[in-house]
UniProtKB/TrEMBL annotation:
SUPFAM superfamilies to which the protein is assigned, alphabetical: DNA-glycosylase (SSF48150)
Pfam families on file: HhH-GPD (PF00730)
SMART domains: AlkA_N (SM01009), ENDO3c (SM00478)
Protein name listed in UniProt: DNA-3-methyladenine glycosylase II
Keyword DNA repair attributed: yes
Stretches assigned to the DNA-3-methyladenine glycosylase AlkA N-terminal domain: 7-122
Lineage of source species: Bacteria, Pseudomonadati, Pseudomonadota, Gammaproteobacteria, Pseudomonadales
First-level EC class: hydrolase
Superkingdom of the organism of origin: Bacteria
InterPro entries linked to this entry: AlkA_N, AlkA_N_sf, Alkylbase_DNA_Glycosylase/TA, DNA_glycosylase, HhH-GPD_domain
Length: 293
């Protein structure tokens, strides 16, 4: 086993509870274990099982990566991964400053000052989770995610399972996914996505840095079984692209209805038009709506 360590400074308004809640979704804790002061997560590091341990202190976060494999020397990629997962690269203060005076959103931003969007460890994790969660309840989506990890994840020596990569999922059969509870459409979409990545047609990790959201969306929407909501969610949770219009999300529409004090349910077109002026941060608006009680 080898290990890498790094320390990052935190903004004074960093919301640790948001990150821990995101990784506490699955109560069975197969791939993530949330502690009082941080979390341990199974990840694949250069194809090898690893455990990423993140611990929060007063104004900083320390991270250790323990890899079941040869000695790793460069901590730079680890720092980049932790900064990405914690949302430290997101320009949330610019967003809050620009819209502080908005009559409905401004008070919400003040209550949630410093809110960032916790990220999945990889774009593939975010995208496969979005496919699994299409048009079903959160508990059912969590159950499907767990079964995918059990089917294709790799075990780390800590006992945690590492979320599978595209190569592992591509090796599955549709019948295995169907037996685990995936619908035919979800199983086919997951396999198509994974096999396109393995073939080199969808370089998600390369797209993480610099690729325009519109270009990513165009390539993903060309895949059968992947629609606008799935792409917007994956852009937000996997690529930290903050301008997706999540008007197709039922929770966004429901919370916006509460924010506006509307007696009637809000349509997707109305929600899309209401979010439009907040570009290029429309997805951050959605995140603030999700954070409402």
């Amino acid at each position: 086993m080898s290990s890498l360590d790094c320390i990052l400074e935190l903004p004074t308004d960093y919301r640790v509870a948001d990150l821990l809640a995101f990784h506490r979704r699955d109560g069975q804790a197969l791939a993530e274990r949330v502690q009082v002061d941080g979390l341990d997560k199974g990840v694949l590091w250069q194809g090898l099982p690893a455990c990423l341990s993140i611990r929060f202190e007063a104004a900083r976060v320390s991270a250790r990566l323990e890899v079941d494999g040869p000695e790793a020397e460069d901590a730079g990629p680890l720092r980049a991964l932790v900064a990405h997962m914690l949302g430290l690269t997101q320009p949330v203060r610019d967003f809050e400053t620009v819209h502080a005076g908005h009559p409905q959103l401004g008070p919400l931003l003040a209550r949630h000052a410093g809110l960032r969007v916790p990220q999945a460890a990889t774009p593939f994790e975010a995208l496969s989770w979005a496919i699994s969660g299409q048009q079903i309840s959160l508990p059912v989506a969590i159950s499907l995610r767990r079964k995918l990890i059990q089917l294709a994840g790799r075990a780390h020596s800590s006992g945690l399972l590492c979320y599978p990569d595209a190569q592992a999922v591509a090796a599955l059969q549709e019948s295995q996914l169907r037996a685990a509870g995936f619908s035919q459409a979800k199983a086919q979409a997951l396999l198509l996505l994974s096999r396109e990545i393995v073939a080199g047609n969808l370089p998600l990790d390369t797209w993480l840095v610099g690729e325009p959201a519109e270009a990513i969306a165009e390539r993903l929407l060309a895949l059968r079984g992947i629609g606008p909501w799935t792409v917007d969610y994956a852009l937000l949770r996997g690529f930290a692209r903050l301008d997706g219009s999540l008007h197709g999300d039922a929770a966004v529409r429901r919370q916006l209805q509460r924010l506006l004090g509307s007696a009637d349910k809000l349509s997707q077109p109305f929600t899309r038009d209401w979010l439009a002026p907040f570009s290029p941060w429309r997805a951050l608006v959605a995140a603030h709506l999700w954070a409402m009680p």
